[in-house]
TrEMBL record:
GO biological process terms on file: phosphorelay signal transduction system; regulation of DNA-templated transcription
Span of the signal peptide: none
Protein name from the UniProt record: Response regulator transcription factor
Species per Swiss-Prot/TrEMBL record: Amycolatopsis alkalitolerans
Domain HTH luxR-type per the UniProt entry, residue ranges: 152-217
Annotated keywords: DNA-binding, Phosphoprotein
A Pfam entry, by short name: GerE
UniProt cross-references to SUPFAM superfamilies, sorted A to Z: C-terminal effector domain of the bipartite response regulators (SSF46894), CheY-like (SSF52172)
Matches recorded under PANTHER family: TWO-COMPONENT RESPONSE REGULATOR (PTHR43214)
Transmembrane segments annotated in the record for this chain: none
Residue ranges of domain Response regulatory in the record: 7-124
Amino acid sequence: MSEAPVTVFLVDDHALFRAGVRTELDSISDEVRVVGEAGSVAEAVAGIARTKPQVVLLDVHMPDGGGAEVLRRVRPELPDVVFLALSVSDAAEDVIAVIRAGARGYVTKTISSTELVRAITRVAEGDAVFSPRLAGFVLDAFADRPGSAPISDPELDLLTPRERDVLRLLARGYAYKEIASELFISVKTVETHVSSVLRKTQLSNRYELSRWASDRRLV
């Protein structure tokens, strides 16, 4: 007799992304079963309380507070629910913030479907799971070693979460159209975010922005 599948709740503010993840998880494995989804903090808190999943796949950046806020509101009431961050962001400060809030792992949205299933089952079993590059951020931060990943940066703090996402992809060489597709926004919105980032950082072009992002370990 096979073991019962791990129950999973999806939290992401992009409905298309949630639908894609749900379809993938339902189709490739009987090890996991999606029991609900939400696109906002309030919906997530209510849905997790109702379904009581074993694992919550949690986006880091959402308009009404993000993954850390979901963790703060759910964990005191449901301490047995395990949270695995699944985000486009691989910035050190995002990883550290959500782990400090109580997530058991953090993987990026470049992860394959089979790897995601494995990550879900591992955190359900009690393991901590990180994409390889991200594990170093966590070890550095919690060891408080010299050169550890910064938790806050006054200049970086001027940028909104979406501006950071756009900057990160821009610094990796993505074209505006590719950034728009990756983040489910329009090219015009990408241009607006880039203009805002240039103004806030007092830089003049994408090459300077790339160096600036690299210095802050955003790339």
